[in-house]
Amino acid sequence: MGKSSLLAGACLGVLLFATQAQAQTEVPAQGQTGTATDQGGDQAGDIIVTGFRRSLAEALDVKRENDQFLDSVVATDVAKLPDNTIAESLQRVSGVQIRRALGEGTSVSIRGLRQNRTEINGRTLVGPFGRGRGIDSVLDSDYNPLSLFPSEMIGRLDVIKLQGADRADGSLSGTVDVITRKPFDHKGELIALSASGVYADQSEKFGYDASALYSNTFANDTLGILLNVTYSRKPVTEQSFNSFTGYTPLTTSFNTSANPHANDPNGDGIPGIYIADFRFQNLVETRKRIGGNGAIQWKPTDNLEVYTDVAYSHLDTDRDRDWFSVPLSSTASDYVSYTLSDDEILTAGTINQTAQSNAEALKVSSDTFSGGIGLKWSTNDGRFAVRPEFDYSRSSIDTTQTFVRMSSSSRYPFSFDINDGGVPTVTAPAGLDVTNPAQFRYTNVFDNFVTSRAEETAGRLDFTFKPAGGLLSSIEAGLRYSSLSTRRESTFRQIAFPSTNPGNTFPVATGPAIYDIRDFAGLIGGDAPDIATRYIAALPGTLPAGQACETIAPGSALCTPRVVDPLQTFEVIEDTMAAYAKLNFETSIGSMPLSGNIGLRYTDTARSALGSIRRASGAVDPLTVHKRFTDWLPSAVAKLGITDKLVFRLGYAKVLGLPDTIDLSPNLTLNRLTPFNGSAGNPELEPLRADQYDAALEWYFAPGAALTVGGFYKDVKSFIYSRAAYEIPPGEVAPDPAGQGFLITRPYNGEGGKVKGVEVLLQAPFYFLPSPLDGFGVIANFSYIDSSTSLLDRRGQSLPFQGLSKVNYNLVGYYEKYGFGVRVAYNYRDKFFDSVGPGSTAIYYAPYRTLDASVRYEFGPFTIFADAANLTNEVQRRYVESSEATSFYGIQGRRFSAGFSAKF
């Protein structure tokens, strides 16, 4: 399992020793009153659990009392770790692995699987792209719903790992339910304020955030209102080595008469790979986020409650991204010399190529809204209850991209070395001055506009009946209808200025002065080659939106009108009707209480995908694809209280996950520029189905403390994977000299896969230590997940599920006493298989570690605090097939913040 697994095991072993001591120490129950508190006194036997420890105890209470397999993170826990987003807060949950983009947590995998539901107060939290990931131009920022909402709005996070029949389907491995704050959470008036300054050390830029909450109850606590508002303006930076398409198979054009098998030196029929281009990049963003939530609760009688709640987030992003690049090729005549490794990877050589300076200005505006209104009514005796609810969610994102590339007018011999997994080196050739405008011309311009919208309208009606006595404690039944519509509209104008026609060349020196000299000294921690740290580049941010072409080439016929591209515009509509029945039971086996439920859910989904198809004649016609699927989803769970401290759980459920919306597009999207690749959706994709089995043993050995061990097994019937192959679409001609066409990546349904794993959680406040050491405590979780699929890489080796890390663990040590609190959190995520790249190459992310810390002091209603994230300045690295073939090497820097909060 490796050094990291051994380290985790050793840490857990030490903590288990502390657990034994904790279990032998008598600690008063959480609610016991006394003179001693965590703010001071230490009289024996008198402890009031408050602050962070109380939040941990509350999370354990939620887990312990629920029949389902569930983990929780409560509000205080969220507030006292330096988490920027909801996704970052979820990394503290065992079995949850987060995906990072530009240093921020943006989305999660639960038990190694990505196709899960995100909810807010039990309803769908819709993202701007519908379900799942977004468009390529902002993919490195992700903009998943879990990254759009600030963590300050959270009341509690629930991660449901085994679905009950009453939960909406669509979760292959779990559901994240973001439960916002409600006025009845705190009776009476509550005012909470918070403000902090933020510093990003890599860019040496400052930002800030602030939040304000007001909550109150009236009319003898029968009416409550709450309003929570947050605002932040933060810098985001990344310095990286990157590549547009990563590593691509060498074509037959790499062969020569002297070496007819140059592209496949070992003769196994599988060509070697080369990186498409070397890109040394500096990215700077400013993100402004306004968010908040509101709620009204009215409970005029004990058996009637009317409620409504809304959540809103608005995000504005301004990005400047610059990179210096040198493209490689698969054409033998371009190379002076080259070296292929034993793994058939082009690792070093000298190539005659142009130098490229690239500059992008990107503006992103996103709005997300989610709201619900409903009521809970029961008969006076409480035996019958009904709960109707209407939900509405929408999300949108608008992106404006202006991109300008300059290329050297001549080709030069560049020497390169991929540097065995580090930052590649590229040596500047003699005669090239990358700061001299006379040696460069404008070659490419993008004026791109993309709008994505998603909207879901849903309604549900739930009934509960409690029989008088007997085994059944209650019978639940309900109906749910939802309609999810996702639309993308694209206006793409991507122009390559030809160099062969003198009338269509646009030299930099004699053109408009829309450039300057970029200076990125110390780029990528000083590992970037000198040629990539100071060079001439355009200033796309100074150009009027959509006018880059007209500015560079005024009056040119190349500046075609901007129109909506039907081949990059689509709509997917999914209407789902579901019904369920669930039998809850309570009984006992001797003195051991037994509870649980048995349920069945029926779901029927009709899908319509609307897009366009390019015919062989070149004509573009509309295309509509219809798909319908139905499923019966049984589930059962049982919880046995072996003792008052020991709980055993057993569960089964048939579950399904749904494809990312973007994968359902019927369109074919082509990149008509080198290296001539593209992507296509598949509206015929089936859901991902699995049978899931769970078992857990939970020992609540002291108040606020627990040791739990769980195992799970998933028999996955179908999954989704991407495969790349060369195609020449109807109406197109081969754009490359070898005549292979476009390298198209499409999603497919794979068959057969297994996922199994173990999760361990230890939570222990060290009450058994003498004062003041009894303020220490620890939280540790560990997961080991293994998988197998029918998916093979191009060498015939079996691949795991996408996004699954075998080993993942968190260690959090804290001290809280006398108003003083310190926490240090370490997170480790093992390597994982991310996707299939060009030529069926397997793309992986290397292991990733983070160290975060938080310090705070509370006095009266006030708190001052300081947080630090990514203290070790971790490198994020992606590679293809072999660890030496790095396709991404990024540094996002450390983040520091300091501020105050107050509650009245």
Fold blueprint:
Elements lengths: L2 H21 L27 H15 L4 E5 H5 L6 H5 L5 E6 L2 E7 L6 E4 L2 E2 L20 H4 L5 E7 L14 E6 L9 E11 L4 E14 L4 E20 L4 E3 L23 E3 L1 E25 L2 E24 L7 E6 L5 E8 L2 E23 L5 E25 L3 E6 L7 E3 L12 E26 L6 E25 L9 E2 L7 E5 L14 E5 L9 H5 L17 E20 L2 E23 L5 E22 L4 E12 L10 E3 L6 E4 L7 E15 L2 E23 L14 E24 L10 E14 L17 E11 L2 E10 L2 E5 L5 E4 L2 E12 L2 E8 L5 E6 L5 E6 L3 E9 L1
Parallel strand pairs: 4-7, 31-34
Antiparallel strand pairs: 1-6, 2-3, 4-5, 6-7, 8-9, 8-44, 9-10, 10-13, 10-43, 11-12, 13-14, 14-17, 15-16, 16-19, 17-18, 18-21, 19-20, 21-22, 21-23, 22-26, 24-25, 26-27, 27-28, 28-29, 29-32, 30-31, 32-33, 33-34, 34-35, 35-36, 36-37, 37-40, 38-39, 39-42, 40-41, 41-44, 42-43
